[in-house]
């Protein structure tokens, strides 16, 4: 029997076809019987149910397609069956069902899916979600695979919610300027970035455009070989600290009347010969910034805000060619870590009585560190230590010292930047010689695993910028354009 005979009266309300030789249920196959209320199609040879297979059956209440060989069901197979109350697809060869297969079944009371070898992978995520929301009684759906799910009920598989979500970094915008660093700040509900570009002798300030959905040039602070721009907001006033190789470093303040940044202060630079990094932070509501000096005759210096401006507060670490400064607050104690090309990183601890940093110790076996970044995963404190030659290192606070937990091969690396989006923890490891690597934290193994490769010419920093519920990473390049990547969430079940 290859088709439904047209001689069947069109006013019958029930039909049973058993042991037929049909291979598929085609579109509108029963539409010439609009009065059908019960349709039984058991023990046939069906392998496929096509879209709109039951169109023209507005009164159908009972549909049984059991003991067939059905492997494929089209997404709109049951479209239009709004009066259907009982559906059985038991004992077929189905491994997966298309998303929203049952969305039209408003009156469904009972669904039987027993006897199918369902794969409880991302393809089943929608079904698991639907099971929790439907009022229908549904048979237990048992998992035949993957191996780690075999024998479990689909309802009990919790891991699909996390396992079926992935992420990616997609190029969003390219800024036609070389850069050494990028900093971000917010002002009156708008998001800005300050890009230090020594080749252009500028600190380019960009603003997020909520209409165009990209970053556009807002202002341009000019100078001489600008190597760092650090924004600080104090009492609703925005300052940008601009570190220069020549002509002294300066502080600019946003002038609302002129709608641009104007010079606010020259920084006392007698002790600063070659600024390499700026770190701004608060201790007990007091604002500070430190400039790490990388020259042989340099002296890294701490500056403090005194309501009129930033002034020299403390000299740190003389003659050590400091490459990076990182502020971290652990165990209720403020600490400053200075990395150097000529010795291992030094840890300073804030002394409340003297209102100054005091040397506390060193991080051993970590020579030639070019950058150090602190980050937290849950309640654990970590450091990412960048080395240009050799292995860059991840260290954990444990609980009186930092101990190594992971080594990452790095050749020509000037930055190892930790950052987090949507509860996921990443590391971006730059490279002057090959692709830069983005690593993702493995919660079970407690280490970072390689996640993605991106190509940036001579990357010098990776900076997180978030706006309009979107997350971006600015990748600065010493030899090419500054690249802006968007962090996107991918629901793997949608592609399944």
Could you explain the architecture of this structure?
This protein is mainly beta. It has 3 domains: 1-163, Alpha-Beta Horseshoe (Leucine-rich repeat, LRR (right-handed beta-alpha superhelix)), CATH 3.80.10.10; 166-184 and 274-495, Kelch-type beta propeller (Neuraminidase, 6 Propeller), CATH 2.120.10.80; 185-267. It contains 3 helices and 39 strands. Strand 37 and strand 38 form a beta hairpin. The longest helix is centred in the first third of the chain and has 9 residues, at 125-133.
Short description:
With 496 residues, the protein is mostly beta strands. It contains 3 helices and 39 strands. Strands 1-3-5-7-8-10 form a 6-stranded parallel sheet, with no helix packed on it. Strands 12-39-38-37 form a 4-stranded antiparallel sheet. It has a 4-stranded antiparallel sheet with strand order 13-14-15-16, with no helix packed on it.
């Amino acid at each position: 029997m290859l088709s439904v005979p047209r001689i069947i009266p069109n006013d019958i309300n029930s039909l049973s076809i058993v042991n037929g030789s049909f291979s598929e249920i085609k579109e509108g196959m029963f539409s010439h019987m609009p009065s059908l209320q019960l349709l039984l199609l058991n023990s046939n040879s069906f392998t496929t149910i096509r879209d709109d297979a039951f169109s023209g059956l507005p009164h159908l209440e009972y549909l049984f397609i059991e003991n067939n060989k059905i492997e494929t069901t089209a997404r709109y197979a049951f479209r239009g069956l709004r009066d259907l109350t009982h559906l059985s697809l038991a004992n077929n060869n189905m491994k997966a069902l298309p998303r929203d297969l049952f969305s039209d079944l408003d009156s469904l009371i009972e669904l039987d899916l027993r006897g199918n070898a369902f794969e409880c992978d991302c393809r089943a995520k929608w079904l698991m979600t639907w099971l929790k929301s439907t009022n229908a009684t549904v048979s237990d759906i048992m998992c035949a695979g993957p191996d780690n799910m075999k024998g479990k009920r689909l309802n009990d598989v919790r891991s699909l919610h996390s396992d079926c979500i992935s992420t990616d970094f997609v190029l969003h915008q390219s800024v036609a300027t070389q850069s050494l660093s990028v900093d971000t700040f917010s002002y009156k509900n708008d998001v800005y970035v300050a890009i230090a570009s020594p080749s252009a002798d500028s600190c380019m300030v960009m603003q997020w455009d909520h209409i165009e959905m990209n970053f556009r040039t807002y202002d341009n602070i000019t100078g001489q070989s600008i190597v760092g721009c650090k924004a600080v907001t104090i009492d609703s006033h925005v300052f940008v600290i601009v570190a220069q190789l020549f002509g002294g470093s300066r502080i600019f303040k946003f002038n609302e009347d002129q709608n641009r940044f104007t010079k606010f202060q020259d920084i006392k630079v007698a002790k600063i010969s070659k600024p390499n990094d700026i770190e701004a932070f608060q201790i007990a509501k007091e604002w500070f910034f430190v400039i790490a000096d990388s020259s042989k005759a340099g002296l890294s210096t701490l500056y403090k805000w005194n309501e009129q401006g930033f002034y020299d507060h403390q000299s740190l670490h003389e003659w050590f060619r400091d490459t990076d400064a990182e502020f971290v607050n652990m165990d209720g104690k403020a600490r400053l870590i200075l990395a150097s090309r000529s010795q291992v990183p030094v840890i300073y601890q804030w002394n409340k009585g003297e209102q100054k940093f005091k040397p506390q110790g060193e991080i051993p076996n970590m020579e030639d560190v070019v950058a150090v970044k602190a980050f937290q995963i849950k309640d654990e404190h970590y450091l990412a230590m960048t080395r240009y030659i050799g292995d860059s290192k991840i260290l954990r606070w444990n609980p009186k010292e930092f101990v190594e937990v992971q080594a990452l091969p790095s050749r020509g690396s000037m930055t190892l930047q930790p950052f987090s989006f949507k509860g996921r923890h990443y590391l971006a490891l730059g490279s002057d010689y090959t692709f830069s690597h983005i690593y993702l934290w493995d919660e079970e193994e407690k280490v970072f695993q390689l996640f993605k490769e991106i190509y940036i010419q001579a990357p010098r920093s990776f900076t997180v910028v978030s706006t309009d519920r979107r997350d971006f990473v600015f990748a600065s390049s010493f030899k090419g354009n500054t690249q802006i990547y968007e962090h996107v969430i991918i629901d793997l079940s949608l592609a399944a």
